[in-house]
Design brief:
By secondary structure, this protein is α+β, with helices and mostly antiparallel strands. The protein is built from eight helices and seven strands; from the N terminus they run βαααββααβαβαββα. Bound molecules: coenzyme A.
Length: 190
Amino acid sequence: MIDRPRFLVRAVAAEELSGRLLEQVLWVFGGALGFPLRHGRVNSFADTLRRHAAYGGFDAFGAFNVPRNRLVGFTYGYSSQPGLWWREQVAAPLTASQREEWFGDAFELAELHVHPSAQGNRLGSELHDRLIANQPQRTALLSVMHRSERARQLYASRGWECLIAELRFPTEPQTPFSLLGLRLQKKQAQ
Ligand SMILES: CC(C)(COP(=O)(O)OP(=O)(O)OC[C@H]1O[C@@H](n2cnc3c(N)ncnc32)[C@H](O)[C@@H]1OP(=O)(O)O)[C@@H](O)C(=O)NCCC(=O)NCCS
């Protein structure tokens, strides 16, 4: 009999993700994006995560392997607020009416990563769906790298719309991203 890997997806508190689980988060983040563990980009993500964990509306889910209970994937986001760095970057090229429509009452999906050793088990899909189902806002927003083919497929199949086909961040000018937006069903139905 083939012993298939088993996984558990559950909500994780901000303090857990940025505290007890931080080393495992960095292992997943570095592995998913192809950086060695002590790479500067991985170290700086620890500071980013601690900062994000304090934002209003922060919500996170983790995927764990069973029975080792080691983190193999995570996702998180928070309520979009005027003045937050990412929002100022991505909203600038939009018209005033697009900004109101998409950023008036929005959730920012900041991170979604599954370690390569666990990819292809639908964990990315489940993490995404559980996080999004939990949000009370009217819309959700994220930026995705052009080269993240699997992530783009995941978002396209879940109704995310492309709002800006190509944008670049001053921190990473060599990397093209797209801005995607999703209308959240609960608010649409009201
Ligand atoms: C994107 C990511 C989170 C997906 O996690 P995963 O657990 O491997 O994904 P799933 O098994 O749930 O599959 C997700 C989708 O990718 C598709 N997919 C699977 N393997 C694929 C492949 N080799 N190439 C393209 N798409 C693929 C699946 O069919 C599924 O699409 P569907 O929902 O239309 O059926 C993961 O691959 C990852 O961490 N990638 C690197 C980091 C990254 O790009 N993060 C996103 C930042 S915005």
